[in-house]
Design brief:
Strand order of the largest sheet: 2-3-1-4-5
Number of helices: 8
Largest sheet: 5 strands, parallel
Strand content: 5-15%
Number of strands: 5
Distance between the termini: 16 Å
CATH topology: Rossmann fold
Amino acid sequence: MRITISGPPGSGKTTVCGMLAERTGYPAVVFGRLFRDMAAEKGLTLAELGALAEKDPSIDHEIDQRILKMASGSEDIILESRLSAQMLERNGIPAFKVYLDADPLVRAERVGRREGEDLAQAAEAMVRRQESEARRYRQYYGIDLFDLSVYDMVIDTGGMSPEEVVSAIVGRMEGD
């Protein structure tokens, strides 16, 4: 079964994706790492690459084509990216689509811990990143990141451990 994991920064996507991969035995592809790698290769910060991507659609298109190629090539895979659910839906590729979210303060705390930033820095960077992505996806694809209707499951991860989130996903996949 193809599984997509989407959500805003700090929602727990990468952690849950890794744990879900361990539990299911499916390979996991985390596209946020690809974006970070692209930024590092270009000597840019995430925010700078995001700003560049607002002017150069080839950056997002490259990532999106990789999503579609990987999804088409494997029925048992986990794809973690902001647009994986929408891209698979638009291309008629079946998947179980999960959206993770949490209160912005919780997400900023998580991002701050991960990036080694204080809460204010993390919150500011997170907001800039979300605004950049929302602009790009609306401009390039007509996708509203706040429209959750494409998802099979929406989870507020704020009060849950990663293990609880994974158990909830697996339970829903198994029809419990």
